[in-house]
Amino acid sequence: MRTYLECVPCFVRQALDASRMVTDDPAVHERVLRETLRLAAEMPFDRSPPWMGQRIHKLLRDATGNPDPYREVKLHSNALALELYPTLKQRVRTSTDPFAAAVRMAIAGNVIDFGCRSRLADDEVHQAIEDAMAPHAPGFDNGAVDDLRRALEHASDILYLADNAGEIVFDRLLIEEMPMDRITLVVRGGPVINDATREDAETAGIISLVKVVDNGSDVPGTILECCSPAFRARFEQCDLVIAKGQGNYETLGGEDQNIFFLFKAKCPVIARDVGSEVGQMVVCRNRSQNEAGSRAPPIHRETADRQR
Amino acid sequence: MRTYLECVPCFVRQALDASRMVTDDPAVHERVLRETLRLAAEMPFDRSPPWMGQRIHKLLRDATGNPDPYREVKLHSNALALELYPTLKQRVRTSTDPFAAAVRMAIAGNVIDFGCRSRLADDEVHQAIEDAMAPHAPGFDNGAVDDLRRALEHASDILYLADNAGEIVFDRLLIEEMPMDRITLVVRGGPVINDATREDAETAGIISLVKVVDNGSDVPGTILECCSPAFRARFEQCDLVIAKGQGNYETLGGEDQNIFFLFKAKCPVIARDVGSEVGQMVVCRNRSQNEAGSRAPPIHRETADRQR
To answer: In chain B, whose CA is at the least distance from the CA of A29?
Structure first.
């Protein structure tokens, strides 16, 4: 997804919010803000928003001298999710459709996203779970869940692209309902915002369940040209990708691979792009796959409209 | 008032909103956005927000080649307000306290502000009037209105600094309740946003009631060093200033003059600075006057706190 002009004020706000979240030093706040303005002024808008997110959060790490400013946030999110895990596992297992319940749980966990916001109360996580498990969650596409179920049956090499710390515990619930011997979990190659790295996969207890690799990049999404050659080869060779979170949707929506995106729409630009509403759970495929006959809604609707 | 860091994302958003409001040309939107980012990156934050507003709106005029992009908006606001005028005049005259009612009306008119936003429905103007006339309008300082009443009795040379088109018709209601022979109405020296210029004073029918001068500047506020020498001399010589709108508050709050500010608090930064809430009507004096014993709340509260 390209960067829309209305993403730009949001970058500036997020840079300020993030700098205030990770340090009390007003000189750092001002420096990060001014550098973000300079970067945004020259940004190529055909790049996706995570391209800018990577740069802003590198600025933040450089300005604070802290290589992982969200470490405490990530530890807290993991601890909160692990505390919830036994109860959530029980809810999934006793559900009439454990796979669908686990998909909903995995998307509920996507509320733990410090890319869009700088504060998240534990209660909001609890609320996201209840909203996700409501029988008639608005906009939720049960047909797309069935498409994913069928795709999993036929796939032999599955990449599961994780998004955030804390959320990765919710991903474990879904991974445990999938053919684990055919799954490789992918985490970021280095700290950026609260995105999950190998350490979080270990904390979530996933490392003993499936293979875990990192993508060699600190983009809060998956920009293939920024990833390691090893990951790019894995991405090309696999026959199914499950990509969590807005950042992965923004960066991989245009790729010619068999991808299912699972996320909560948290910003109006992405909600419009995917044909959803802010706050809704999204299960959708990338356009090339959708054109092959999926029931999931098309993505990049605006682009499609323009081409007609 | 200095520019707070949280003003900066708002500048960027406003620049984009404003460019979209005045033209459909996406190249202009992008150019104004990028130039605003460059300007904001280098802005001295000890300057007030209208310093930046002037530059953004000059960019907009240059990029569109339109010397007055808000002309249609201003004409509409004036027409709307003039249509309401006879009814509002009747409400003021039949009020138990016409002066206080006219102060409320003048502040209600301050909702017609395209500096903070790019859309305003006529219904919002009607609603602002009803809110302003409610007996217990939240946060409204009746004591400050009495201070203003007394100040008017003793002043021999009064400047009334207008803010916006449309709003200036509401100002007429207040001016008509004041000693008109001692009042000079001040408008902006050139078009900027929807701020009132001489043409709007004519349209509002004020030009036949009081003297009207312009301040020689296209700042959406009153930065004295940007104003004409003639206006600066008038400002120094007068013994009372009534300043409408956030822009005048932001630029004149630190001046050592006898100033009453009348506005609707429309942004959280200004509301916090003045000790009010967003949406409330504010009547307050500048700090130097307040320290002399006014009942009005102090302004620049944060600065005052820091100095204790």
So the answer is: B5
Low-confidence ranges of chain A (pLDDT < 70): 287-308
A52-61, B94-103, B108-117, B122-131: least confident range: B108-117
The pair of structure tokens assigned to A197 is 């790295």
Half-sphere exposure of A91 (CA within 13 A, CB side): 20
On the question of pLDDT at B195 being above 70, the answer is: yes
B26: chain A residues, CB-CB within 8 Å: 5
Gap from A272 CA to chain B (nearest CA, Å): 18
Tell me the average pLDDT of chain B.
Answer: 92
Q: Is A5 on the interface with B (CB under 8 A)?
A: yes
Chain A's closest residue to B41, CA to CA, is: A34
Residue B288 has pLDDT above 70, yes or no: no
**Does the beta carbon of A21 lie under 8 angstroms from any beta carbon of chain B?**
no
Q: ipTM of this complex > 0.95? A: no
* Minimum distance, in Å, between the CA of residue B134 and any CA atom of chain A: 36
| Residue B247: per-residue pLDDT | 97
Is residue B121 less than 8 Å (CB to CB) from chain A?
no
Is B253:B287 a contact under the CB 8 Å cutoff? yes
Short-list A97, A204, A122, CA closest to A160: A204
- Given strand B158-161, what is the order of strands in its sheet? B211-214, B183-187, B158-161, B240-244, B259-264, B281-285
- Interface probe for A, chosen from B4, B6, B7, B12 (most Cβ of A below 10 Å), is B12
Structure tokens at B200: 């709007």
Whether the CB of B268 is below 8 Å from some CB of chain A: the reply is: no
Phi, psi (deg, nearest 5) at residue A294: -70, 160
* DSSP letter assigned to residue B157: S
From the list A5, A34, A41, which residue is nearest B16 (CB)?
A: A5
| Cross-chain residue pair A37–B37, CB shorter than 8 Å | yes
- Judging contacts by C-beta atoms under 8 Å, the chain A residues touching residue B42 are 34
Lookup result for tokens 């339109």: B66
Q: Which of A74, A79, A1 is nearest to A275 (CA)?
A: A1
Least confident of A37-51, A90-104, B93-107, B286-300: B286-300
Look at residue A85 and give its three-state secondary structure: helix
Separation in Å, CA A267 to CA A4, A132, A247, A278, A280: 12, 18, 11, 6, 10
Burial of B176 (C-beta count, 10 Å sphere; 0-12/13-18/19+): middle
For the segment B142-165, what is each residue's pLDDT rounded down to a tens digit? 999 999 999 999 999 999 999 999
Q: Is A238 helix (H, G, I), strand (E, B) or coil?
A: coil
CA distance B19 to B8: 17
Q: In terms of CA atoms, which chain B residue is nearest residue A19?
A: B5
A22 CB within 8 Å of a chain B CB: no
A37 closest CB neighbour out of B6, B29, B41 = B41
| A9 contacts chain B (CB < 8 A) | yes
Q: What is the pLDDT of residue A116?
A: 75
**Lowest-pLDDT range of A91-95, A255-259, B84-88, B304-308:** B304-308
Query: Which pLDDT band, with edges at 50, 70 and 90, does B136 fall under?
Result: confident
Share of chain B above pLDDT 70, in %: 93
